Amino acid sequence: MKGTIPTVLLALLSGSSPSSAGPVQRRQETVTQTVTASGAPSTPTQWTWNAGGSQAWPIHESCNATERALLKKGLEDAAALAAHARDHVLRFGNGSAMYQKYFGAAASAEVVGWYDKIANGDRSRFKIRCDDVDGNCALPGWGGHWRGENATDETVICPLSYTTRKPLEGLCGYGYTVARSPLSFYFGADLVHRLLHMPSVGEGAAEHFADSYAECLELARAAPAEAVRNSHSLQYFALDVYAFDVAVPGEGCTGKAGKGEEEGKKEDGHGGHPAPTATTSGAPSTTSSAAAECHTHADGEVHCA
Ligand SMILES: *[C@@H]1O[C@H](CO)[C@@H](O)[C@H](O)[C@H]1NC(C)=O
Ligand SMILES: *[C@@H]1O[C@H](CO)[C@@H](O)[C@H](O)[C@H]1NC(C)=O
Ligand SMILES: *[C@@H]1O[C@H](CO)[C@@H](O)[C@H](O)[C@H]1NC(C)=O
C-alpha cells in the first residue's frame, strides 16, 4: 500500500506536466515558423486580438469566501444597473424625461459609453481587494476606497460594505428613495461609482462635478457636458431608471428631495477619495448652498435656479 501512493502521485505528475507544457511548446513552434517564413507566411498565424482581456470580475485573493460571493453579487448588480441605464438611453435617447432630468441637453453617446464600459468593458486591468492595505477601513463609515496614488487600478472594499449594502432586488424597498437615500445604499450603485474611479474604466474623465441629488439636477441644466461624466449623476440616473423601468414598473421610487437628502449624504460613508468630503463631519457641506437654490414642485420634481 505504502508504495502505491508515490506511484499514483508520479503518474499524476507525469500525466499533468506534458499537458501543461503543451501550449508553451506550441506557441514556441508558432514563433519559429513565423521567423522562418520571413516572406509571405504560407499558413496564417493564429491571432487572438483580445488575448489577455477578461470578463471575469477581478476579485483579489485577499477576499475570503463570504466577501468574494457578496462582492461578485454586488458587481453583477453594478453591471445590471449600468446595462439597463444604457438600454434606456439607447431606446429613448435624449427624448427621455429621465435623461433630460440628469443630463439636460447633452448628447447621449457619452452616457451610453460609460455605462457600457461598466457592463461590458475589459476587467483585466483593475482589481478589487478586501485587505485593508492602506488602513482606511478603520475610518468611521468607510465602506471602501480607491487606492489612489498607492495603486491607481485598485479599490479596497471594507468589511462595512458587506454588512450594510443592499442587493439590487431590494430596490425601492427598505424606505429607499432616489432623492433622499445615500448613493451607497445599494451595493451595485456604490460599485458603479467605485468602478468609475478605476482609470481603465473612468479614464480620469468620469469624475466629481456635483454630489447631492439636487446638485446633480442643477448640473444637468447648468453644465450638461459635465453632467454626462459626473459619477454621481451616472449613479442617480441608473438607479432612477432601473427603479421605474424594472423594479417597480411605471412607478419607481424617485421620492422628493428635502432635508432627508442631507442626512443621506452624511450617512453615505463613501470614503476613499484623495480628499474625502464631509463623510464623518456633522458640519453642513457645500451642498447646502446649492440645494437652497432649488425648490421642490408639487409633482415632486426639484427645480433649480
Ligand atoms: C435631442 O436631439 C435632437 C436631435 O435628434 C436635437 O434636435 C434636440 O435639441 C435634442 N433635445 C434636447 C432636449 O437636448
Ligand atoms: C497610501 O498609503 C499611505 C501609507 O500607507 C496612506 O497613508 C495613504 O492614506 C494611502 N492613500 C490612500 C488613498 O489610501
Ligand atoms: C470574511 O470576512 C468578513 C469580514 O469582511 C467576516 O465577517 C467573515 O466572517 C469572513 N468569512 C469567512 C468565511 O471567514
TrEMBL record:
Signal sequence range: 1-21
Compositional bias (Basic and acidic residues): 258-271, 294-305
Gene3D superfamilies the UniProt entry points to: Collagenase (Catalytic Domain)
InterPro entries hit by this protein: HRXXH, MetalloPept_cat_dom_sf, PRA1-like
Domain annotation Putative peptidase: ranges: 30-256
Keywords of this entry: Signal
Domain of life where this protein originates: Eukaryota
Ranges where the record places region Disordered: 255-305
Composition bias, Low complexity: 274-292
Identification of the protein by name: Major allergen Asp f 2
